[in-house]
Write a structure and sequence with these properties.
The complex is a heterodimer of chains A (387) and B (922). By secondary structure, chain A is mostly beta strands. Helix content of chain A is 13%, strand content 36%. Chain B has nine helices and 58 strands. In chain B, strand 26 (383-393) and strand 27 (397-406) form a beta hairpin. The two termini of chain B are 46 Å apart. The chains are: A mainly beta (387), B mainly beta (922).
Chain lengths: 387, 922
Amino acid sequence: MNYLTILTQSVKKARTKIALVAFCSFAFACKENFIPPIVDERSGTLVVEGFINTGNDSTIIKLSKTTNLTTNVTTPAEKGATVRVENDAGQTFPLTEIRNGIYVVAKLNADISKKYRLSIKTSNGRQYFSDFVEAKSSAPVDLTFDFNNDMLNVYANSIDVEGKSNFYLLTYKDTYEYHAFHVDVPIKVLNHKLTVRDLQKDPSYICWRSSTSTNVNLSSTKSLNQDKIQRKVISIPSTSERLAVEYSILVKQTILTKEGYNFWTALSKNTEEVGGIFDNQPSLLKGNIHSVTDPAEVVVGFISAGTTSEKRINILHSQLPGSFKPFKLSSNECKIDTVKEGEMESYILNPPVPLHYPLVGGLIAQHAPCADCTTAGGTNVKPSFWK
Amino acid sequence: MRTFYLIFSFVCINIATVFAQQTKLFNVNFQRANIKQVVTELERQSNFLFYYDETQLDSIRITLSASEKNLSFILDETLNKIGFYYAIVGNRVFITKGNLIDPLLARNGVDSLNQSGVPLAILPANFLKEEVVDIKPIQSTSENKVYNIGIQTNNVTRENATVTGYLRDIKTAEPIVGASIYVPLSKTGITTNQFGYFTITLPKGPQLLEIKGMGMRDTKRQLMVYGDGKLDIDMQEQITTLREVKISAEKVANVRNLEMGVTKLDIKSIKQVPTVFGETDVLKVVLTLPGVQSVGESSANFNVRGGAADQNLILLNDATIYNPTHFFGFFSAFDPDLIKDVELYKSSIPERYGGRLASVLDVTNREGSRKKLTGSVGLGLLTSRFYLEGPIDTNSTSFIVGARTSYADWLLKSLQNKSYQNSSASFYDVNLDLSHKINDKNFLYLTSYISNDGFKLNGDTTYNYGNSNLILKWRHIFTNKLYGVLSGGYDYYKYSIAGNTTPANAYLFNFNIRQLNLRSDFNYYLNNKNTINIGLSSILYRLNPGSNNPVGAKSVVAPINIATERALESALYVGDKMDITEKLSVNLGIRLSMFNYLGPQTVNNYSPGFPTVPDHKTGSITYGSGQFIKTYSAPEIRTSLRYIITDNFSVKASYNTTRQYIHLLSNTTSISPTDVWKLSDNNIKPQYGDQLSLGLYKNFSSNTIETSVEVYYKRIKNYLDYRSGAQLVLNPAIENDVLPVRGKAYGLEFFVKKTTGKLNGWVSYTYSRILLQQNDVNAGELINGGNFYAANYDKPHSVNFIGNYRITHRYSASLNAVYSTGRPITVPISRFNYGGSDRVYYSDRNVYRIPDYFRLDFSATFEANHKLNQRFHNSWTFGVYNLTGRHNPYSTYFISESGRVNGYKLSIFASMIPFASYNIRF
């Protein structure tokens, strides 16, 4: 897949969209939920995700299993496996399971000119190997941003003067600081009871929230005359809460082989752009991990190797154009409500009634995040990289 | 029966008259003598005086040798045999045509009799040969008149004569194509060709021709055939302007025609079918025929009997149309104002067509009227159109021009979303056709077509596609029995995409196909048992598979130009339509097709027997200009057979093989205009298909109800499927990404049609399957483990109903119902987490189906009035598309949204869509 194919596909997609919208203006219900009547769900297939980092960073391998489409449970981890990195020079590097299904080894500092593979022996005794893959080193990545169309856009820029990179995978983890409305509220709800809060150890006003990329961001420079990318990583609307105080993003760049690129393309196409009448048909997700015990067994995943490069930038609220109005909790959301003493407990104890936060003496209630930033999903522990 | 009595009474009159005669005997020996010579001789030998109208008799020739015969005998054997009467009063002899002068009494009934009722006694032997005289064609307009064909002689032999001529519309002088001429006496029939021309062999003597043409009033002609001759037949249009369903030219044609699996639709029946926004759409109506499917509602691409959408040869006036759709498939690219009729061949494909596997869709425009200037203007919700036709000089040259344009932009502009307001979409198409009659034997036709679609998305990606076609035909009539058509044409299809999202990425992508066509086609009417079609055709392809170039100085897009492909596709064909017995007819056809992939080109070679992937590449060879890189050739068999069991019941069988040398590379469910075509080369083999079909045809209620059952089995080889992650655009080695698959298709089609009456229309039910298989481990990855899998357009059950009810002559209502099994889809069967998001794992290909499809449409047409002499005629059409408002899924899809997998189905026309259109004819 190259750059132009992606563009032509975007045209196809747009075509569906345009046609759709054109006719939706006449029709009313266009898009409905659809759950196909599945008869042979295939759960329990091994899923292997990770990257053999031959450089200074840790190698993290995640083993999990496929699960039913219709259930809401998180995908189960494959626990208790024996996982090793091997290279074609005969070296092995054992990994240890640090959490359920997460296997790690710190800093391999291994020879990048060697080929690497992953060996997995699951707790039920089945042996799997990945193919030996070429280790690809990543050129440095730089980040730029602009403000366009009421968006903050962050771009990753990288150039490989040797022209060996060609296939790029970008992932990110972003973090933003946000605040509660009321400064330092000295009480909190714990186990359905009001308790006193130690604001030194457990601050209530400043929090940080992080998220990781969920879409596959691939680029190929095969159709360009330079091995150079300028790729949008994220676009954040001007009204987003993420820009309210300070926004930070860490972008990680990995170089893939052609096979790896094909795998990620198929993965992304199969789930991010499939099903439209002008979209491609789902393609076979061909990974590079095979079962020794049963060669026909399906294993999902593709293991790549090499080094990664990463870059972080921080964007302060003061750097934003005047037209940007990021969301902040205000008196609109944080209206003070009086709760009768006898009813207060039921508000605390019985979600989903909006949780009211008692402010003083149990008489005044608040929308929870107005008083305690941790209730909005973030953490009040300052990240190590925060200034 | 009544005629018989009248004839009988004539005989009596003659006998009575003769009885009164004296008995003078004559000795005569006339050899092709004219009337003057005969009369002079008879007057010389007797004292008779003859009275006659010389103009009535000057064209007859009399041959008779008699000795010692009386006058009655001589006149009976000569003039009476060819429809003249005589009356002998004293020594005066009156010779009349049509009416007998009764010397005795006026009799009732005689005056009203203007038909020839003279019984014919055929002489045992002919002692004279008739010369073939090139005479002017007889213009026949009357049903009651008897037209004499050939030089009139009194001695009519048992031999056959050939009659040729044209069927024309009396009002516009346009030829009537595909009309049937049936001879009840000999139970033979023929149809007129694309120029309205016919050749028929008849036994000499009195003959009745029954003529039926689409949209024309049924008529008949009475002939007295003396020898070879020409007869032009003028037919009248069905005066009722109400749309009557007529999908076949001839009421008995479905039973008697040799071809099977051929359906002809005239524009009137196409127009009455309700469509979205009231835009008359040829392709949408074709989709209601048995054996024709499509993948979705918005797609005008169609699948015939398990064939892929690129396996249809779509012709507009013989020019190849690569993209027959507008507005991404919502409309067809054919202008309904100009179309005369549409013919779909899905089973027996005549040997003159080739190059596509599944079907031929032949769209024919009308010829411009030679008699008067007419036109119309139509206003629809999304498009407007006009056409104009008329003579350029009297009776020899005429033109027809039509154009359509869309103004769909308002739809996009009216949307709230900003990105759609920056978008635009529009299309147009223009037809210009000229026809010129050089003389009675030479005719020239020039047809041209241009279509264009432009579409701009969100102000930064511009998209454009279009067809251009030009064709010049020269038709020459060599003799009564042989005519030929020589044609040359140029077909062009292109699309382009221009993007400028960022200056660094600005690009322009181009794709195009050009083909130069040269064709000669001859029809030789050997005798009444054999009609031979022979011809030679050549197509020179020049295909630009894609070029992508940077736009602007800042663009870092690397120019990519995939080398232009060239090829020559030629075919020599010959077919013989043979009537073996009165009941059994066969068509034996063979088409020798040859394909040469031509240089200049660099081609890759791979180890024989291995998949064409880089691992097995052995090298590449560069060929120079015009060098033959690879040649494929094979005979294609086109045969069909018909056996008439009873007058309205027949059985037919056909076996056809077809080859296709050009492939559409499409990995999407529906054909997208961004798909590219690829010629066969040394690595990509031609597609091959064969089909065996059998059908039963029976008509009921005096041929007003036609029924048929057809069953077929079809095999397909080398159809292209794609490896996972295939790159189809700008791929210099496409053989690395394709997989040849084989397919089998079978089906059963039931069809019932009522052609006349207040309620008319058709119902069809089709059971059909199309299954594909990739089980060659060597070729690369197996699809569904090497088992057969359903193609995207496999819809086993399909029911269509098209009905029209004529309330009065000015009001009519139409109802259209469509049901089909949902098309197959590949759905996710399990979920896993990868790359920070939940992902899905897909089932085997196409093992599930979207919900079944059902739709009901209604329309009503109101004609203002039917005064024939009015300058303007106008009509309104109102209708509702998708009357039940059913949410028919157009597609289903599964996407990861914020880390979760959600399944959706989309319905395009998810509610009732009312429409209206207004037409003015002048």
